[in-house]
Amino acid sequence: MRFPVFVDAVSRRASLPSDQAATVCRAVLQTMVERMTGGEAADLAGHLPDEAGGYLAEPGAAAPTAGRPPAIGPVDFLRRVGERAGVDDETARAGAAAVFATLREAVTVDEFRAMVAQLPRDLDGTTQRLPHSPGW
Fold this sequence. Notes:
mainly alpha
């Protein structure tokens, strides 16, 4: 999936202008990488469009930790997204939901499971675990 297509999908899902959707994508991906351990961010970046995967390693994005990162809840996760993107709580929530929905299409089921396993539970249902299904 090319980055403009990724952003367009987020824009449509969240009802955001394209430039704001790109900013929210960046904020969500950078906030996610704070929650990931070592190789998970690199694995995820390998499945994203080049421009989106680059957000995981840009200056200002926190580096993945070697150990387990401190736990944060969904409210704090969304607050961080909102601060990074310069948007209100509702826009952060809608944007994060749209990014996660788009990620489900852009990465493999196993990669998505590994990613959400490191994120706060119940981000308004955006990171609920996928059921294990033989043959996936």
